[in-house]
Amino acid sequence: MPKRRHLSRTVLAAVTAAVLGAAGCDAVGGDSPAPSGTDARSARPSPKPTPTWDRSPASVAAVGDSITRGFDACSVLSDCPEVSWATGSSPQVDSLAVRLLGKTKAARQSWNYAVTGARMADVPGQMAQAATRRPELVAVMAGANDACRASTDAMTPVADFRAQFEDAMSTLRESLPKTQVFVASVPNLMRLWEQGRTNPLGKQVWKLGICPSMLSDPDSLTTQSNQRRETVQGRVEAYNKVLKEVCRKDRRCRFDDGAVYDFRFGTEQLSQWDWFHPSVDGQARLAEIAYRTVTN
């Protein structure tokens, strides 16, 4: 039966080849020639995609309000940008820019466009200024002044806050589609009131107009005063939800997931002049949070 045995071997060889092909086995081995041309290109492993987020940007710009300007950290009622958590040069703070770039490069490749008293409505303009430097990372901390108004009725509506932040992101993206953005959450203003209300000097400075919606009548525990503070706190939480949602829509944006809001500022982290803004130590803690978010 020679023909039948030959047929059986032919069928077995065909089945074996089919199984090997289905299993994805490499049929080239020993002294067999390697694939070439189109076959060689298809045989090479696909290159790994470039990560969207770069943990070591080469330049940093900052936008926002008095916290990013280091207000009341060095002297009463004045900016102190050298201790800014974002771009400061102080070794006591070890700012985000210094941690990412090193001290020498940070002096040349970081810029601070934050303005004391700024609200979210001011951030699109700051973003436009920052974009002229073409930074690889923009650090954003804004929103406290939107809640810190003369009254709760004067606080920025949540819908307006959202539109303003979206405008800020769009402003950046129009000229710098690949620049990364770090967004810090709005601090817990209730926590700051709880810490500062025990200090007589701080309460005297609060009377000058620092966050009156939260800090006016600091010793009052009436139902009306408590409700006012809860209203402010609720608005801060709503702002943070907006920051998270808008940032999530941009693949090159990272929100701190509420790390600044959750940080338990103590007396060492608060300004000795107003017991509200971060001290030098507080600025250092903010820098740690930002660096951790950017590099993880």
TrEMBL record:
CDD domains, per the entry: SGNH_hydrolase_like_1
Domain of life: Bacteria
Pfam families: Lipase_GDSL
Keyword hit for Signal: yes
PROSITE patterns (alphabetical): PROKAR_LIPOPROTEIN
Signal sequence range: 1-22
Region Disordered: start-end pairs: 29-58
Molecular functions per Gene Ontology: phospholipase activity
Keywords: Hydrolase, Signal
Full protein name: SGNH/GDSL hydrolase family protein
Native species: Streptomyces chartreusis
